[in-house]
Design brief:
The structure is a single chain. With 464 residues, this protein is mainly alpha-helical. Helices cover 57% and strands 3% of the residues. It contains 18 helices and four strands. The strands form two sheets. A two-stranded parallel ribbon has the order 1-2. A two-stranded antiparallel ribbon has the order 3-4.
Length: 464
């Protein structure tokens, strides 16, 4: 899978990354991601330099090329517009998964349902949050793609819109005027390119992801807990544990995630908002675009492709992006740490291999598993909960010192949860007296934010 969002990445990335060998299942290496678009001839358009052709221009292929290009643009127009062609993304993901997945059996669906029901019973004693899921589902890989697409729209649109807008903003005024009606067509082609790469990324992730919450947030419908039994079976082969034990452990993690997100109403929007803030910080070096417009022959597609691969359109990493990424990583660490601590308490000695599975999943998340790879490809964020162990220790200590209710009460407001600095010394945060009373802490924070004007109310209005 590509390490860059929609084929574009930070300008300061290690150029040695471009020399890495292609892995099975990786997306196309051309910067537009058009290599596997439906309707395109195998290997690209024959006879066209830079588009898969082996020789010079072949007039006999021109009609076929234009017809296929027209079909692609028509499909883009009929998809409803937008920065990403999600219809194409779903179509490509389904095509790639067709040979890898099969319909689930009734026994598989029943096993998932039973595991989730048992996990909910165990979690009741380990957290103050009641059950969050009202439906238990077993998903195939393609069902996961369909169920998760609305969430991917929320995640991908901000970045795609900002990247596409940055290109247009960076073009010289005369270039924009000369392009005229072509700008709309370029937007459609960009939507196809983004949709193609998204489809590639989701196909790989769908073949590996274990639950609906593995990327750190629930990607499916609200209050639906889901596991992917085919992927769980593949995951179990690398573990020296019974399949039923692994399924129950994963079900406990899924159910714990659902409880947290359902009963902490601000959490999901805070994560998605951080992604949007990251996108707002995207900046493209317009001098590079101007250089491209002046120094490259537009009749030579190969030269344009070479320039793009050379990083001419790479977004710059800005301070705003770094700040948003830091907030995201801290929030993901706190979520994963809470789930880790709660599940460890819930399963206790009930599952003999719980500690080994806990460590395996910690490594999977912290070392950059499928979730991080897909984020890097389709959103442009290399997300991983780097402080997962520190966060898990913090929540464990809070549970010991303040009890389950006191620990979980910190999720009542975003101002109460630990910060990145608190993860540096979990014991010190757990020992703080003010955090043991969330209401008192909120009142303290409100007083700290009160206006200096003694005649002004906290809401900004003048007192009578």
């Amino acid at each position: 899978m590509s390490d860059t969002p929609f084929g574009f990445g930070p300008a300061d990335r290690d150029r040695d990354d471009d020399k890495k060998p292609e892995r099975p299942g990786d997306g196309p290496q051309d910067p537009f991601g058009f290599g596997n678009l439906p309707g395109m001839p195998p290997g690209g358009f024959p006879g066209l330099p830079g588009m898969g052709g082996a020789g010079g221009f072949d007039v006999s292929q021109l009609g076929q090329m234009l017809t296929q290009l027209g079909q692609m643009l028509s499909q883009a127009q009929n998809s409803g517009g937008g920065p990403v062609n999600y219809d194409l993304a779903a179509q490509l993901a389904h095509q790639q998964l067709a040979a890898k997945t099969s319909s689930l059996t009734g026994a598989q669906r029943a096993a998932v349902s039973d595991a989730l029901k048992l996990a909910e019973l165990w979690l009741d004693a380990a957290t103050d949050f009641p059950a969050g899921a009202t439906e238990h589902k077993a998903w195939s890989a393609t069902e996961w793609v369909d169920a998760s697409m609305p969430t991917w729209k929320r995640l991908c649109d901000p970045v795609a819109q900002r990247v596409a807008g940055a290109w247009v903003e960076g073009l010289p005024a005369e270039a924009r005027e000369a392009a005229g009606p072509m700008m709309a067509m370029l937007g459609q082609m960009g939507g196809l390119a983004f949709g193609s790469q998204l489809g590639q990324g989701l196909a790989q992730l769908a073949a590996e992801v274990l639950t609906s919450t593995e990327i750190g947030i629930p990607v499916g419908p609200d209050r639906v807990a889901a596991l992917l039994p085919e992927n769980v079976e593949k995951f179990t082969k690398d573990l020296d544990r019974p399949a039923s034990e692994v399924l129950i452990f994963l079900a406990a993690r899924e159910a714990a995630h659902q409880r947290l997100f359902v009963h902490v109403g601000w959490l999901k929007e805070r994560l998605l908002g951080a992604v949007e803030q990251y996108a707002q910080g995207i900046r493209v070096d317009t001098s590079r675009i101007e250089e491209l417009a002046r120094g490259i022959d537009p009749s030579n597609p190969a030269a344009i492709e070479e320039a793009m691969q050379g990083g001419m359109f790479d977004p710059e990493t800005t301070p705003e992006q770094k700040a948003a990424l830091a907030r995201l990583e801290t929030m993901l660490a706190l979520i994963e740490g809470w789930v880790d601590a709660v599940v460890a308490e819930a399963v206790g000695d009930r599952l003999p291999g719980a500690q080994a599975m806990r460590e395996t999943l910690r490594r999977r998340r912290a070392s950059g598993g499928p979730a991080e790879q897909t984020f890097a490809t389709v959103v442009g964020l290399e997300l991983r909960p780097r402080r997962l162990r520190d966060a898990a220790e913090l929540w464990r200590l809070l549970g010991e010192q303040r009890g389950i209710a006191g620990r979980d009460a910190l999720w009542a407001h975003p101002d109460l949860i630990p910060t990145a600095d608190d993860l540096d010394d979990p014991a010190a945060f757990a020992a703080r007296d003010d955090a043991s009373d969330p209401i008192a802490e909120l009142e303290k924070l409100a007083n700290e934010k009160a206006p200096d004007d003694p005649d002004e109310k906290p809401g900004g209005e003048k007192k009578d």
